[in-house]
Amino acid sequence: MLETVIHGVTFKNPVIAASGTFGFGHEFSQFYDLSRLGGISSKGLTLEERFGNSGERLYETESGLINSIGLQNPGVDAFIRDELPYMESLGTVILANLGGGTLDAYLQGVEKLNGTSVDIIELNISCPNVKAGGMAFGIKSDVAYEVVREVRAVCKKPLMVKLSPNAENIVEMAARCEEAGADSISLVNTFKAMAIDIHKKKPVFDNIFAGLSGPAIKNIALRMVYEVSSAVQVPVIGMGGISRWEDAVEFIMAGASAVQVGTANFVRPTVCLEIIEGLEKFMVENSFQTIAEMVGIAHNNA
């Protein structure tokens, strides 16, 4: 009933643990059987090991979380050697989330991942382009097109492109990524935000700006998924503030073939399992036989 197929990869259900909130699965395995998940998107990877940003890294808001982790990760080689064997043992779809500060770094990372058991490469184009003054690859559609086109030429895995909500035009961005060869689109990443420490009278984060996630962004993310799914033919994977099964249903009805759950994992470590169970109950009660029957149904009734 919950099974969904995305560019040839079969997910036992449409619930994926989002990158950056689930590590490589170790910490959450003590709470439930991770084979119940549709998939796990790895901690964001870069070609070389990164130690992340200095200073404050996490800041709770009234309805979300601002993070300035800075893509701390062991690097692609260490991931393949030390973490991937464990993820293989979990019995779920493996997505490798890959970032990079240059096009060459993306290409080298993809080439290393090509020869592994990773099922899907999720290309994070929200990373700062170090050769363009720090502007993210995912801000301008033409820049994103070139990155995805070059990566597609060397990528031997299904390619999912993860979009930033900070793009100049996210619908145009999605269409250009599809044109460049993306097999699917995931959205949204975090929103550019900030916080100020009124006692120290200065910004909380050393980098001043950071990424907002959690319930605060849900309805904006939902709107973006609705718009993007109308503009592309490839599958869309929705995320942004999903914390209940009802949220997941909304995203699927808005056009998402699957969903990713991020910040909510920190609040309730079993939230993905709760969403899976809630989805199944909802489908039975509403006579849906497959996830595909629900995907985009809100468009038909608008």
Sequence of secondary-structure elements: EEEEEEHEHEHEHEEEEEHEHEHHH
Strand order of the largest sheet: 3-4-7-8-9-10-15-16
Radius of gyration: 18 Å
Let me know the largest β-sheet. 8 strands, parallel, barrel
Number of domains: 1
Question: Could you give a short description of this structure?
Answer:
With 302 residues, the protein is an alpha/beta fold. It has helices spanning 76-88, 103-114, 141-154, 170-180, 218-231, 245-253, 264-267, 271-285, 297-300; strands spanning 4-6, 9-11, 15-17, 39-41, 58-61, 64-67, 93-98, 120-124, 159-162, 184-187, 191-193, 196-197, 202-203, 210-213, 236-239, 258-261. The protein has one domain (4-52, 71-188, 215-300): Aldolase class I (TIM Barrel).
